[in-house]
Design brief:
Alpha-Beta Plaits; 4-stranded antiparallel β-sheet
């Protein structure tokens, strides 16, 4: 059985305050895009994971952790051989690891015939990371709390996304990278939720959204990534408007209503040696009925 684990961008990402439990209260609107890792599941007596990226083949990666958690929590006696084909750039704010974890929960729930309902899967997903619950459904969602409390929103009309990933990132990787980015936030980076409310209104009423993109990590990303300002400028010079950060960065993106213009911007960036992708937004309606995403694709 094969499934795609889609990346995401954040149409808005606000940090409201630091909570007493040490986490931050956020408001965010998440959107899946059709840049995807591919995960293959096969029945096996033991649990094993292999990856096209050797650094992800151990027992600390999120695919293994998700599979092991599901096996232990249900008491399932069987195993599975899981192969992960990475395509989503890592440590860029695109949620690749979280998406892989959610897709693993969904895939093994089907492969093993466990029959876990959405509430049970959500509980397991939330224990793996704040973004993981979102990827159980994908599409367009409002995220609150730590970002793990999600509710679906009307999706925008299909939009094209030109995504740029800096080739060198000096910030720490993985979970440490996210914590590092939060540590760089100043009170001036906090907001009151109004950018997200404006985006929700636009989505619910079918209004334009590209001018409403917002990310509270922008200043911190400029501080953490020496290439941020240069990449932002290159994307703007190539024709990208309202350039926005994905997650806590350092990936940057711009939205386009028409594919031809997005392709021109993408080609312009590639001609300048920039690592860029041209993808589109994707909704669950394009996925198979068993809720395991079908294979997606992207031009790179």
């Amino acid at each position: 059985m094969e499934a795609s684990a889609y990346a995401k961008i954040n149409l808005t990402l606000e940090v409201l305050r630091r909570r007493e439990d040490g986490y931050h209260e956020v408001r965010t609107i998440l959107q899946t895009i059709d840049l995807a890792d591919t995960i293959t599941f096969e029945e096996s007596n033991e649990l094993s994971v292999e990856s096209s990226d050797p650094s992800l083949a151990g027992e600390e990666n999120l695919v293994w952790r998700a599979a092991d958690l599901l096996k232990r929590s249900t008491g399932h006696f069987g195993g599975a051989h899981i192969r992960l084909e990475k395509r989503i750039p890592m440590n860029m704010g695109l949620g690749g690891g979280s998406s892989d974890a959610a897709t693993t929960l969904l895939g093994l729930n089907t492969l093993w015939g466990l029959g876990l309902d959405p509430a049970a899967l959500h509980g397991l997903a939330a224990s793996l990371g704040s973004d993981v619950p979102f990827f159980l459904t994908g599409g367009t969602c409002l995220g609150t709390g730590r970002g793990d409390e999600t509710s679906p929103l009307p999706g925008p009309p299909r939009s094209w996304v030109v995504l740029v990933c800096p080739q060198e990132d000096s910030s720490p990787s993985g979970i440490g990278k996210t914590a590092h980015m939060y540590s760089l936030l100043d009170p001036e980076d906090f907001s009151d939720g109004s950018p997200t409310r404006q985006m929700v209104d636009a989505l619910e009423n079918g209004g334009p959204i590209d001018g409403l993109l917002f990310n509270g990590f922008r200043r911190a990303s400029q501080q953490a990534s020496p290439q941020h300002s240069q990449v932002e400028r290159l994307l703007a010079e190539a024709g990208g408007e309202n350039v926005c950060l994905a997650g806590s960065g350092p990936a940057l993106f711009s939205l386009f209503p028409h594919e031809d213009r997005a392709r021109r911007v993408h080609i312009s960036l590639k001609d300048r040696g920039v690592q860029a992708y041209c993808v589109s937004t994707v909704q669950p309606s394009s996925w198979p009925a068993h809720h395991i995403p079908g294979r997606g694709g992207a031009k790179s």
